[in-house]
Amino acid sequence: MNRSRGVSLVLVAGLAAGMAAQEPGQFSGSPSELVVLSVVVADRRGRQVENLVRDRFTVFDDDHGQPIALFSNQDEPVSVALVIDLSGSMRPKLAEVVVASSAFARTSNPSDELFILTFNENVQERMGGLPLQAADAAGIQQELTSMRAVGQTALYDGVTAGLDRLDNAAHARKVLLLISDGGDNASQTTLPRVLERARRDDVAIYTIGLFDPDSTDRNPKVLQALAETTGVARFLPSSPGDLLGICQRIAHEIRTGYTIAFVPPVRDGRYHRVRVDVSPEAGARFAVRTRPGYVSSAAADRASR
User: Fold this and answer.
1) Rounded Cα distance, 250 and 27, in Å
2) Contact 183/137 with Cβ under 8 angstroms?
């Protein structure tokens, strides 16, 4: 399969089987290529809204309503690439990164597969690129405590390597968690290329910015762009305790969000805008967050697979 197959057009045999088992009659026929969306719903106070039923959701592709083919709000395992900045500017923050990253793993679904990648001017794939299970607290702690921060920053290369690793991950839902100050001074690739890749891949990129206010290496706008492109959030913690809480919040959000899939109306090779609406309750409206769009695979690309 071509790696640039389209942002959310993935073969979801396992996902389809799992969802169909939860809601008989919802999905029929052989597994097909679907647009798969991770969706988070919050109330006006920003609190996550859980346990909404399928009929409350409406999906729009370029403002045209689409039937929901698959729906799940179950705590299903996901594949996660934890991408950590180990350039010299991160040295004062490294201890708190280790603690917060460990808390993220402990709060995650124990069956999540977790790839750990680090970067300075080079990218390092921990465990030889093999994943650990989130339940393997000792293995994760060993990898995290062996980290050393030194050198320059190849952030764009680090994100690209994380996306590469998730290409062949085990689970249909995929998340990349980036912890960095947002600066880059050593990458071979560029931010526009990374953003284009993010628009094409079915990966939610959460970003956490760690830097001092007077740091010359910080670039929170890069972190914002990566998160917004994939429909999730950028966080800027102000203290170690704040960082710890954010990592636990992200893990909880991943476990309690919604997964919605629909059949793309056309295969035209272009970018399609996506919107998900949730019907309001009396006196209450919801904020819905998902990726803003996807790149459809062209008919010729589909035939070649």
Assistant:
1) 29
2) no
> Is there a domain that residue 48 lies in?
yes
Tens-digit pLDDT profile for residues 259-280: 999 999 999 999 999 999 999 8
* Burial of residue 95, with CB atoms counted within 10 A of its CB: 0-12 exposed, 13-18 middle, 19 or more buried: exposed
* Residues 6 or more apart in contact with residue 128 via CB below 8 angstroms: none
- pLDDT band, residue 34 (cuts 50/70/90): confident
The SS3 of residue 230 is coil
* CA-angle at 158, arms to 288 and 189, nearest 5°: 100
- pLDDT at res. 29: 37
- Position 2 in a domain: no
Instruction: For residue 213, give the DSSP letter.
Output: T
Indicate whether 109 and 154 sit together in one domain. yes
Same domain, 90 and 239: yes
Same domain for 144 and 102?
yes
Residues 6 or more apart in contact with residue 201 via CB below 8 angstroms: 7, 163, 166, 167, 174
Same domain, 55 and 98: no
- Tell me the per-residue pLDDT of 223-258, one tens digit each, with 9 for 90 and over: 999 999 999 999 999 999 999 999 999 999 999 999
pLDDT score recorded for residue 234: 96
Residue 32, domain extent:
9-73+258-304
Residue 263 to residue 70: CA distance in whole angstroms:
9
CA distance 102 to 14: 28
Across the range 21-49, mean pLDDT stands at 71
Mean pLDDT across the chain: 88
What's the rounded Cα separation, in Å, for the pair 54 and 287? 16
Residue 97 phi, psi (nearest 5) = -65, -40
